[in-house]
What does this fold into?
Amino acid sequence: MTQSRLDEPLGLVVHSMPASPQPAPATRGKGGFWKLLAIVLVCSLPAIIAYFAYYVVRPQGRAGYGELIQPVRPVGAAMGTALDGKVLALSSLKGQWLLLSVAGGVCPTECQRRLFLQRQLRETLGKDKERFDLVWLIDDQQSAADAGRALVTDGTALRVEQATLNQWLLAAPGRSLTDFIFVVDPLGNTMMRFPSQFDAAAASKAKRDLERLLRASASWDAPGR
It folds into this structure.
């Protein structure tokens, strides 16, 4: 090799180091964030409904009728028995708002009046009535009276153990479950109660409470299961 070739400067070719595979932080991060946010929102819906009911349905100085149940009481995994003997999970009632009351199978006059009020309250909602189902929970082993059956022909009647009722529903101190009509949200949470006896003025207030709840849930709740 000649001296001139030895004196020439060395030419170096620099190659970049192989990049280690990394997740796309922006994409993955955003995807995980939105999934987490969706989960939090779904889990928070009962609290959102309760907040709305407390601050909008019954603000200070405004005539509200429903009494908010706090915290809400989830339906859980308990079972009930239909009048035809079929065993059903109470969670099968999810997907609709419920107007619900408790009474024995004999269903005397007071029971019939309560079931009638449930029906009438639902009817006052007009086109929105399809977002509510009527439910009669029977708390004993007596055969269901024809009068009671007739009042829930387009609703649901289930025989449920008293312990299950006490876990899912909540009466006011010193009162019985039979003293109330309960409101259950589409997630299966008992969140409001009305006295089972009310006049026309109180019925109007109860209707307004229900209408406000329906407006508040219109973005995520649709008629029918």
